[in-house]
Design goal:
Length: 281
């Protein structure tokens, strides 16, 4: 019983920390980063109140809308088996979840942190503080895509901005880029701060870029993370790249990237799966 209590306590703590992290991203990190880019960086590298200046403001607003919008939709879209009438479906190849004490469809997996089975569970996302599954897969992919684009976009301006304050002809600046945090602790001047922000910019860009391309490649193949990791070959869900995109982004898959508010119905329900005959082994 003690072990079980500690396990439950750890899960609750992790869930609490995830929600704190989520709130910090939405209300602190993203607004802080936006303020730095719009109010400090952009005016120093682009003449204010000109056409290029307004174009960059529009692009920043577009990126912000998609980042925040996809993040909120991703978190509040229910993709669990809760409330689903499962007994009315063909239950061939379903498995029993010992925790939920319920049958679960193909591709559904139990999440200890969410404490439920998730339809087409891809993975548990710390950014969303919930699992990425059948109904919110679209929002996770577009969230990572727009974070990556924002990091690449801002990196161009940040390098131009930082170049105004640092001297490139001595070895100390190289050390600041290699050990930015230590450099900032030792010398908390503006030069060290700006270098640290550029390095964080690069790290976040590389990380989100990896997430986007890795998961988007899985989507094109009709796979989810558990199937990729475990090399599950019992069933193949690859219907071709176009149908695989529709399975995640819906019938309007070609325009969903514009906004998270675009309604794009999914072709299925995450419960029943039509497996192509030539893919079934």
């Amino acid at each position: 019983m003690i072990i079980k209590f500690e396990s439950v306590g750890n899960k609750q703590l992790k869930r609490f920390l995830e929600h704190i992290f989520y709130l910090a991203i939405v209300f602190v990190l993203i607004p802080g980063f936006l303020y730095f880019e719009i109010c400090i960086v952009l005016p120093s590298v682009t003449e204010q109140w000109t056409m290029p200046y307004f174009i960059h403001l529009f692009c920043a607003a577009f990126l912000l809308l998609n980042i925040i919008g996809n993040m909120i939709y991703g978190m509040f879209t229910d993709t669990s088996i809760k409330g689903k009438i499962l007994y009315s479906y063909n239950q061939e190849n379903w498995t029993m979840c010992s925790v939920c004490e319920s049958l679960r469809p193909q591709r559904a997996w139990h999440c200890d942190l969410c404490n439920t089975c998730i339809l087409k569970r891809d993975h548990h996302c710390t950014f969303f503080a919930c699992c990425v599954g059948y109904y919110n897969h679209r929002y996770f992919i577009l969230f990572t895509m727009y974070i990556f684009i924002a990091m690449v976009y801002s990196f161009y301006f940040n390098i131009k901005f930082v170049a105004q304050f640092i001297t490139w002809n001595h070895g100390l600046i190289i050390a600041k880029f290699i050990l930015p945090l230590a450099s900032f602790v030792i010398d908390s001047g503006s030069e060290s701060l700006y270098v640290l922000l550029v390095v964080i910019n690069v790290i976040v860009g590389v990380f989100t870029g990896f997430l986007f391309f890795y998961h988007f490649n899985n989507i094109l193949k009709g796979e989810i993370v558990p199937e990729t990791k475990k090399k599950l070959m019992g069933f193949k869900y690859d219907k071709g790249w176009r149908s695989n995109l529709i399975e995640v982004f819906g019938s309007k898959w070609y325009v969903t990237w514009i906004s998270p508010f675009i309604h794009s119905p999914l072709p299925g329900n995450g419960i029943q799966w039509d497996i192509p005959a030539n893919k079934h082994k």
